[in-house]
User: Fold these one by one.
Assistant:
Number 1:
Amino acid sequence: MRMSKIVRTITALIFWAVVVFGLYVVIHGHLTPGGGFQGGAVIASSTALFLVAFSKEEFLKKYKDAFLSLAESGGLTLFISTAFLGIGTTFFYNFIANSGGIFGNPVPFGVNNGDLNTGGTLPPMNMAVGLEVFGGISLILFFMFLGAYLKPFNKEESEVHKE
Amino acid sequence: MGMEYWAHFFTLIVLVIGAYLAVFLRNLLASVIALSAMSLALSLEFYLLHAPDVAIAEAGIGAGLTTAIFIFALRGVRRD
């Protein structure tokens, strides 16, 4: 089932804006309010918008459900492997912080100056959580969307529905 | 009685009106939209109370995802 032309046009207009805002929340997770979970939920709400406005076939053209499942499992695997990489000291040890490389700038004392290249293992973990939440919530939404079209369980109930 | 007082006042008024409409509207789709508006007002109230982190989560989950799930459920139970 598709919604009216107005809903579909507005969805096509703001779909990528919602995705970009979610990516902003994820990438700035260690500096500003929000993080992996919130950004992933914002990206997944773009999926909700798409499913409300368009049909199942158009959704499957955009995302395969195997891809969403892969995003969920891949995000969780990335998170736990980043945690295990610091096992030389402790589990979840932030081994990249202040090392000078990628995400390794030292944080100056005082007000947050907005340097994205800080935080050590926190930005990769935020991205992993964002990927995982996007995949998981999109899968939940997609299967609830499919469940709305299932036939009723017994025959009497389907008779009632026909009236 | 500054600006912030009135912001709290109107946000809470909208929240209570949205909750009342969500319970008492007869049209189910309108009821879901009222619940979504209530969730948005709650998110604004979280922001006014200096919890922007919770506000983003509430706006994404409460106003976005649960509304979509309720709309799918309404499509599923439609009689026609």
Note: Chain B has a mean pLDDT of 90.
Number 2:
Amino acid sequence: MPSKPAGRTRTAQPAERVAVRKTYKLYIGGAFPRSESGRSYPVTDPAGTLLAHAAQASRKDLRDAVTAARKAFAGWSRATAYNRGQVLYRIAEMMEGRREQFIAEIVAAEGGGADAAAAQVDAAVDRWVWYAGWSDKYAQVVGGANPVAGPYFNFSLPEPSGVVGIVAPQESSLLGFVSVVAPALTTGNTVVVVASSQRPLPAVSLTEALATSDLPGGVLNLLTGSVDELAPWLASHRDVNCLDLTGVPAADRVPLAQAAADTVKRVLAPATLDLAAEPGTSRLAAFVETKTVWHPLGV
Amino acid sequence: MSIALSQTSASGAVGTAAAGLADAGRDDASLRRFLHGLPGVDQVGAEARAAALATRSIKTTAKAWAIDTAIRMVDLTTLEGSDTAGKVRSLCGKAARPDPWDASVPAVAAVCVYPDLVATAVQVLRGTGVQVASVATAFPSGRAALATKLVDVAEAVAAGASEIDMVIDRGAFLSGQYAKVFDEIVAVKQACGSAHLKVILETGELVTLDSVRRASWLALLAGGDFIKTSTGKVSPAATPPVALVMLQAVRDFAARTGEVRGVKLAGGIRTTKEAVRYLVMVNEVAGQRWLDPATFRFGASSLLNDLLQQRHKLTTGAYDGPDYVSID
Amino acid sequence: MSAFDNTAFDYAPAPESRAIARLKPSYQIFVDGEFRDGRGEAVKTINPATEEPLAEVAEANAADVTDAVAAARRAYEGSWSRLPGSERSKYLFRIARAIQERGRELAVLESLDNGKPIKESRDVDIPNAAAHFFYYAGWADKLGYAGFGPNPRPIGVAGQIIPWNFPLLMAAWKIAPALATGNTVVLKPAETTPLTALTLAEIIAECDLPPGVVNVLAGGPEVGQALVEEPGVDKLAFTGSTAVGKQLQRSVAASGKRLSLELGGKAANIVFDDAAIDQAVEGIVTGIFFNQGHVCCAGSRLLVQESVHDEVVSALQDRLQTLRLGDPLDKNTDIGAINSAVQLARVRELADVGEAEGATRWSPACTLPDRGFWFPPTVFTGASQASRIAQEEIFGPVLTVLTFRTPQEAVDKANNTPYGLSAGVWTEKGSRILWMANRLRAGVVWANTFNRFDPVSPFGGYGESGFGREGGRHGLAAYLESEA
């Protein structure tokens, strides 16, 4: 077992090697910048021990993230479903290889035992596998031919809505995060996600796995910082198509959902998120558009 | 659409040179280039348009006008192996005076018969203004040597036919031998002399509306005065979508060349309702100037009696019965 | 002068009889199975073709909305949501049949109240309304097979607000899937076109649906607002303008109320140089002049490949000369009346803007009736993508012609709008059709056709054209609890 990767040891014992600490950065357009604002904020474990200074993203970082997500949309949405499935499965592979790192980071971020953290990592890996398998099946399950009363061939298919803005769950730092971003990516959307404000570090490490998973840059963009500060900009951004408020407490959702109405965003604000249950398809359905195509049948 | 301008047309169809269409008639390749460069026809869209036109409601004065116009457009036709001089004489009487009780009923446009009965028809119809049309060119299949077809035409013309209804070689058309079809039409046109040439496409054998459009243009480029749907011996014969495409062809040909050519629908048109719907189509697709026997005809036999019965209904207000029109 | 003295083919008037509509002097709202006077204003609904009053309608007020929602709640909990699907199904089949039986009456009534040509109400609106009930009737006892889990649940009370462009058809689009899935309904038709919805209420009463399952409230925007704010409403479905849709989305934001929106559009109808030009011209005409252009999915932007621009515009102009504008009840009328003075003013204003922006305005020679609300079919050429007539939904018989050079440019221009309801593509090349259909951001892509509708075919938009689908299996989702 490696030494506690996310935590900080105050002093180096004479015989012990000095650990190389990680800088936790944003993930935008496939790169790992610090916040353009230069700000960071302390992230602690539940006991209040400092874990790291995470980047505190600004509205301009959010703007850049949306730009990157929009730029990546054409390529990701038009990639074959087979290819998207391969990439998502590759993410699971990359996470599996960093299993111990994620366990340690979850223990650090959330407290609790290593067994619970391990279960969370395993569930998060399995969640990628679940969604990876959906990518080339979803359209078959929800799309199809419609037998119209006339000489036309008519079919409906789901298509990605576009750029999805997500506020990730605040509690479950890894499984919660994966459970909201994976379905949006599966159907071909690109994502700008604000990680848990207090527990962002496992998500940051996940983006390091994403960067080596053949996920094109910009398909997922991660912001860490204050949800209160960032979410209103996400909700009102006119180039964001969908808003997932899962990580926003019910009491705070109304103004965000109202801002989203200005551009008729698709808003997902579920009452609960059951991370233990099989995910089902409702999150896949939340951010797709049904396109129906007609063509005459003639000679 | 665009057509390469070029050298001289070997076949030299009349009137097309000025519109830049001369090259189109040179050989298989140039004809193919032109005909396949025409816009396609979407079958479903064409059928929908034809069906929409059929919903026009033609009542009272408009219906009266349509009935008389339709009567004046009829090529009263008998094309049976059992035709005789007696049958043709009877038909000619009906053509010149469709309603023995009502002199205000106009005469039909023409009587259409086989070549050997042309002389009989000419004799009966002299002075009536009713034209004598003859099918020719090994009607209805067209499967004969060109020389035979030309003799067929020449004899009909010599017997006094003023209109010749030829059939195209559908086999040649469907196998892409456009120049062969073109040259035959040109040759027949020459054999017609001053007689008007109606070119029967036999659209029921061409099957697709794309082929109907191409055959229409081929016949028009080759000098046909009319393009005609059918022999009446193949089903389907005239249908609304086919009529639509042929009317578009003469409309577009006139726009390109300034020459107004005609359309004749033949086969299967039996009721006034159908005839009036076709007149609506002529009116709205080709234009009002085509609503004239010089540019639009119905090849029919039983249609005339239905027109007469509907005319009676408009005149008397009572529905008519078959005993009040003559059987020919 | 005899009937045979005409010298030209002038179509004589062929009017459908107004008496067929069985117009009543006054209409009442329908609440809890009873017809009663609404407690709002009594207003006259007028014939937009003549400006003559047709009937008086006792509109609802907020108290009526509360009553109707309470009645719908009672019906939902008391009977309807527990009724076996097979029994709900038979009620819907009854409604479908009854609409067919009274089809001619409904068609004439619709044309009187809305101003649309009788041939459209007769051949499109009413048959499609009946077909919609037929389609969803069959779903009511098969919901477990629809892909929403083995035992999908209804949501509850649905508040439904519909526009004036297809009054009965929109009522059918809303009511049929809601009832099939076990919801109960409070429907508010548009203020200018309440008559067929209230007649549908009569049909529903005759079909013996339990009281409160369907409630129909005539009224204006304030009645709609009351319905939106009514806490007892679990689900809102709205078809109408994007501006109102946004307000509605805002007012239910994060409230837990389910919402589906079918809003505006500015559809591109894209014509390539290899298109079947005659059919494309028909598609352009159908696209923008069907129902006077009062169609959210209207093909109001013609994107024509520059190489065939002149040919297509010329053929279009020739074709428009044959359109017949006038009495909506005349069976030969192609273009009816604009639905209201307000809408006419908007169409006029935007057409004037188009002219001021420098586009070339063209209309066929046609005489507009002296009374009523009329606007001629209008084509703007020489417009730019940046002009208001290329960006804003006009919702009238006004076409803006733009050009493109390459397929990618066509896609880019077509998608260059906050809307995304529909699009048209005209080309004889199969692979290009699918390439275009794949890239167009629109809920409905009509390839080599336009403005086709069918109960089995999902309809709805991307982006600011709204969300949710109506029609087909997909249309059920808007009225079922989503799986956990």
Note: Residues 44 and 50 of chain A are 4 Å apart (CA to CA).
